[in-house]
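re: ur question from yesterday

yeah so i grabbed the chain u mentioned. its 185 aa long if i counted rite. heres the sequnce exactly as i have it in my notes:
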Amino acid sequence: MSTAYLGLGSNQGDRLRHLQAAVERLHGHDPLRVVAASPVYETKAHTLSADEEQPSFLNAVLRVAVDCGPDVLLHVAQEVERAEGRTRSSEQRWGPRPLDVDLLAVDALTCRTDTLTLPHPRLGERRFVLRPWADLAPNFVVPPPFDQSVQALLNQCPDDAPVRRTDAQLDDLIDASSVHGGGCE
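ran it thru and got these structure tokens back, copy pasting raw so excuse formatting
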């Protein structure tokens, strides 16, 4: 089994419910098991222009045990996004979305294909990813080109946008002793 870290975000509709549904749907894919979840944070949306307004995001990071390759994991993540109403083909880049599921890292794996780059190439610039990830796995060393712990990346992150911890939790949705049937094959 490999350990993967997934970033979750939502700024459209019932944001918390979208994050909860993502945990439930991801946990429902065999052989994939959500092992732990960070606290949920609220952040201002990153936009293409300074005058563009969007609802704020709720963000969290999941630790997932997987027994499939990263391409299959990406496919599962995109299935979960679609199930929550995301339509990538018709949305604007950095536009509002019901759910975003990003593959941040899978163990020490590095890869670059037409559809996937691991680790996520912009994670070092995103406090909304690093802050919850540091709560979950501060000492995880992100593979090259980063080669630093999550905490070190957070400490030097150039993104100074406020990241506010909420009272919401996703851990109560995780039953570490159960693995549901599903489709990571």
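noticed a couple things. The domain at 2-173 is CATH 3.30.70.560 (Alpha-Beta Plaits). also The radius of gyration is 15 Å.
anyway ttyl
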